[in-house]
Structures are given as structure tokens and as C-alpha cells.
Design a protein that fits this description.
heterodimer; A: alpha/beta; six-stranded mixed β-sheet; four-stranded antiparallel β-sheet; 10 strands; globular; B: mainly alpha; MetI-like fold; elongated; binds adenosine-5'-triphosphate; binds magnesium ion
Chain lengths: 245, 250
């Protein structure tokens, strides 16, 4: 293993009531990787992502994040989660807080940073995604695409080392998908390590450097996007791609 | 002609009846309220009713919130198992038995020393009682918040308590405000059984006046009118509040 490695998953097994949802998954994610995970519904993509920041407890195996074993009971998971940003399909913005407070809440509570510094940071990030004028509004005033862009920079406020995306555009109207993917693309181009569960094959093709096909709780196939989409030799993957492309 | 006389007679007698009626009412009011300053019974009773309701509600809010947090914490992350079992038992027993009985147990079985303060027992009893109901209101409010909120907070690195405090409780508060107000209104009426533990509350004051004046109708109706005024005015505010909360949502 190289010291460039950020996430190491070894023989991960996850069961829900004795039903295996993830079946012996091992994978390494390096700094700067943009790893896309595709696969049929129910294949375990969300569950895999949620295991990486311990939103789900795993049944067996080992997960190291930046060298820290999160499966070890002694590990303070809250410390590790500060380094892991997560973006949800349904945004999960805090409806009772303004956009500013959505961004500032977690770093204010968790990081020893001055309020002005956080404010500046929030403003800068909002400008970056073109939503500075929304800073003092509430989430219900935003469109889905705007909400998701805010959700992404809410995670960035914590300066994460890795970002997890669970179908970030699936709940959006088609005309809003592009604006969110653009933000993600910019992130990837700036070197953010990303794991993206998505049905946007064009995004996977264009932005990622690795694509994984996860089906029935197993990594069936992994390759660079070129090989993955054009010259793979796996029948199940071919079958899946023929349905979604 | 005959017809006209007849009509005026009826009118006249109607007027007489009306005059008699007003006089009777004024007389009864005088007898039941003014004579020997009997209105003071009502004022004292109303004061005690409000004191019991207010303090019982405060007890209920404080402990109800704690109980609800214990129960949701158990449901969320399976910790606090024994406290949760206790809360569950408490809520079952309190909600499954009449409040009068609970008061009488407190008054006649537990605080038995002579000169036990009925008012204190009533506040404690209704506090114990409303804790159970308010706990359930808080709990359903907390559980009504989308699971994604907890996950978003936790994934940012906030711990369970921080997420509860900054994210879940403020949202739940909005949800529970209307039912809490309804609980308060219900409590005002429920305290009318405080007389069983020798408290002179609003209802009791009607009874006392009745025993002095041997007139049941007047004091009972006066007391009913006061309860009704309290509850309608409060309900009106609750409805306003509900409308304002709804307007904030969209
Ligand atoms: N909390 C849970 N309890 C029981 N079973 C669950 C739970 N969460 C997920 N599962 C099951 O695990 C399997 C994988 O679910 P998962 O959500 O990871 O799939 P997915 O690949 O993300 O699918 P989709 O593309 O529909 O989002 C499914 O069969 C699902 O029913
Ligand atoms: Mg999913």
C-alpha cells in the first residue's frame, strides 16, 4: 500500500438481519481519486458509502480512513467524520437555519475558528457556486439544484480530505443536474478525493479516473472510465450498461 | 281592536317577564358574588387553578423533555436501556390511571402528615401526570424530524448530543408547540378535580358559594363561564400561533 492511500477497505461484509448486502469488498482509494460507483438498484452502493463514515456499522472487515481504523471501537468516529464530507440525494439542509448558519454551524461547534473567519469562508464558498445572494435566506427558498450546491459547500466548510456523494443529482429536475455536476467537476479538478455513487454515466466517463461496478454486494468490475465504458470484457456489466446508456 | 289590546297585553306581560327575569338575575348575582364579598372565593379559586396549572405545566415540560430525550435516544442509538424502560413504565402507569386517583394516592397515602399542603400536592400530582403526556408529545415531535437531519449532522462530525441540540430539538420545538398549548388548555380543565385533595380551586369556589347561598345554578354557571373564557381565549391564541407557524414553512 502506498502512502498516497486515503481509504482502505478490507474484506468488508455488511449484513442487514442476516442478509448480506455487501459481500467481501476490498478496495483502496488514493488521494486525488475520483471514484465513481455504478450498479443496479439494491446493489449496495449507498450502504457501501455509508459504511465509509460509519453511518452503518459493518458486520466484519476493516476500514481505514487516512490511516485510522474506524472499525476499531476505541476510535472516536466524530473526529474521523470531520475529514469526510457527505452529500445526500435529498440534500438534508437544516430547514430552521439560514444558508449562512447551515454552512457555519458544524465548524463553529467543532473547529476552533473565529466566527469572522468562518463567515468569510462561507461567503467565499457561496460565491464560488454562484449563490452569494442567498446567504441570508432559508433552504425552502432555494431550488433543488441550489440546495444541493449549498449541501456540497456545507461539507467543504469542514475542509474534508474526502467527499462522498450518494446520487447527488437523482432527486433533481433534469435542468438542474448540470449546475450540480459542474460544482463536482470543479472539485475533482482541484484534486479533491471523491467517491461518487451516480447514474450519470457521462459524468463518470468525463470526470472520474476509476469506475466501479457494484452489483449484489460485490465489486464485479473496476477500470478506468475508458476501458469501463468501451472495452470491458464483463457480461454483467455490458448488460447493465446496455440498459442505462 | 280586540286584537290590538290583546297584542299590547302580551307585549306588556313579556316586558314584565323580562323585567322580572333581569331582576332575578341581578339578585342572584348580588347574592352569590357581592354579599359578604363572596366573589373573593372565586378570585382565590381562580388564582389556585392558575397556579396549579402553570407550575404543573412547568414540571411537565422539564421532565417531559427529559423523558422524551431518553426514549428517542434509546430508539435512535439503543443506549439508556434502563432509563428508557423506566420512562415507558411511568408513562404507561400514569396515562393508564385516573388523575384523581393519582392525586388521592399522593394526598392520602404519601403526604399523610397533618397539615400537608393541598396546593403543593396538587401541583406535584398534576406535574407528575402531565409529565407523562408531555413526554409523549415531545417524543412524537422529535421522532417526526426526518432521519436525514440526524445523518447530515452526524456526517459533519457533530456528536449525537450536539446534533440533537442544534438540529433536531429546534425543529421539533416548532412541531410540538401547538399540541403543548392544547395540553395546557386541557390541564386548566383537569385541575378542576383538585378539590378532592382539599384545594380551593375555581370549581371548589363554586361549591363553597353554593353551600352558603343554597343557590346551585348561579355559582356553577359563573364558574363554567370563567373556564370557558380562559379556554376560548387561549385556543384563539393557539390557532393564531399555528397559522403563523404554517406560514413560516412555505
Ligand atoms: N436499513 C436497512 N435495513 C434493512 N435492509 C436494508 C437497509 N438499508 C438497505 N437495505 C437493503 O440493502 C440492499 C442494498 O441497499 P442500498 O441502498 O445500499 O442499494 P443501492 O445500490 O444504493 O440502491 P439504489 O440505487 O436504489 O439507491 C437493498 O436490498 C436494501 O433493501
Ligand atoms: Mg442508494
Amino acid at each position: 500500500m502506498s502512502d498516497n492511500s486515503l481509504v482502505q477497505v478490507k474484506n468488508l461484509i455488511k449484513k442487514f438481519n442476516d442478509i448480506s448486502v455487501l459481500n467481501d469488498i476490498s478496495i483502496n482509494i488514493n488521494k486525488g481519486d475520483c471514484l465513481c460507483i455504478v450498479g443496479p438498484s439494491g446493489g449496495g452502493k449507498s450502504t457501501f458509502l455509508r459504511c465509509l463514515n460509519k453511518l452503518e456499522d459493518i458486520t466484519s472487515g476493516q476500514i481505514l480512513i487516512d490511516g485510522i481504523d474506524i472499525t476499531n471501537k476505541a476510535t472516536d468516529i466524530n473526529q474521523v467524520r470531520k475529514k469526510i464530507g457527505m452529500v445526500f440525494q435529498h440534500f438534508n439542509l437544516f430547514p430552521h437555519l439560514t444558508i449562512r448558519d447551515n454552512l457555519i454551524l458544524a465548524p463553529k461547534v467543532l473547529l476552533n475558528e473565529n466566527k469572522n473567519v468562518l463567515n468569510d469562508k462561507a461567503e467565499k464558498l457561496l460565491k464560488r457556486v454562484g449563490l452569494f445572494d442567498k446567504i441570508d435566506t432559508y433552504p425552502n427558498m432555494l431550488s433543488g439544484g441550489q440546495k444541493q450546491r449549498v449541501a456540497i459547500i456545507r461539507s467543504l466548510m469542514m475542509d474534508p480530505k474526502i467527499m462522498l456523494f450518494d446520487e447527488p443529482t437523482s432527486a433533481l429536475d433534469p435542468e438542474m443536474v448540470g449546475e450540480v455536476l459542474d460544482v463536482m467537476k470543479e472539485l475533482a479538478n482541484n484534486g479533491m478525493t471523491m467517491v461518487v455513487v451516480t447514474h450519470e454515466m457521462a459524468f463518470a466517463k468525463e470526470v472520474s479516473n476509476r469506475v466501479v461496478f457494484l452489483d449484489a454486494g460485490k465489486i464485479i468490475y473496476e477500470a478506468s472510465p475508458n476501458v469501463f465504458f468501451s472495452s470491458n470484457d464483463n457480461d454483467r456489466l455490458k448488460n447493465f450498461l446496455s440498459k442505462v446508456l | 281592536m280586540f286584537d290590538l289590546i290583546n297584542k299590547s297585553l302580551i307585549l306588556n306581560s313579556n316586558f314584565l317577564v323580562f323585567e322580572n327575569f333581569t331582576n332575578t338575575i341581578l339578585n342572584s348575582l348580588y347574592k352569590n358574588l357581592i354579599r359578604e364579598s363572596r366573589y373573593l372565593y372565586i378570585i382565590d379559586g381562580l388564582k389556585n387553578t392558575l397556579i396549579i396549572t402553570l407550575f404543573a405545566m412547568l414540571i411537565g415540560l422539564a421532565f417531559g423533555l427529559i423523558f422524551a430525550l431518553i426514549r428517542t435516544t434509546y430508539e435512535n442509538i439503543k443506549s439508556l436501556k434502563f432509563l428508557n424502560a423506566f420512562c415507558k413504565l411511568y408513562i404507561t402507569v400514569i396515562r393508564g390511571t385516573p388523575v384523581v386517583l393519582q392525586l388521592m394516592i399522593l394526598f392520602f397515602c404519601i403526604f399523610t402528615q397533618r397539615g400537608s399542603n393541598g396546593l403543593f400536592v396538587a401541583i406535584l400530582g398534576f406535574g407528575i401526570n402531565s409529565t407523562a403526556y408531555i413526554a409523549e408529545i415531545f417524543r412524537s415531535g422529535l421522532m417526526s424530524i426526518d432521519k436525514g437531519q440526524m445523518e447530515a449532522g452526524r456526517s459533519l462530525g457533530l456528536n449525537y448530543i450536539q446534533t440533537m441540540w442544534y438540529i433536531i430539538i429546534p425543529q421539533a420545538f416548532k412541531v410540538v408547540l401547538p399540541p403543548l398549548c392544547s395540553e395546557f388548555i386541557a390541564l386548566i380543565k383537569e385541575t378542576s378535580v383538585a378539590g378532592y385533595v382539599a384545594v380551593h380551586d375555581l370549581t371548589k369556589s363554586g361549591e363553597i358559594i353554593k353551600s352558603r347561598t343554597y343557590d346551585a345554578w348561579t355559582p356553577m354557571l359563573i364558574v363554567a363561564f370563567i373556564y370557558l373564557s380562559l379556554t376560548t381565549v387561549l385556543s384563539h391564541f393557539v390557532q393564531k400561533l399555528e397559522r403563523r407557524l404554517k406560514a413560516n414553512e412555505r
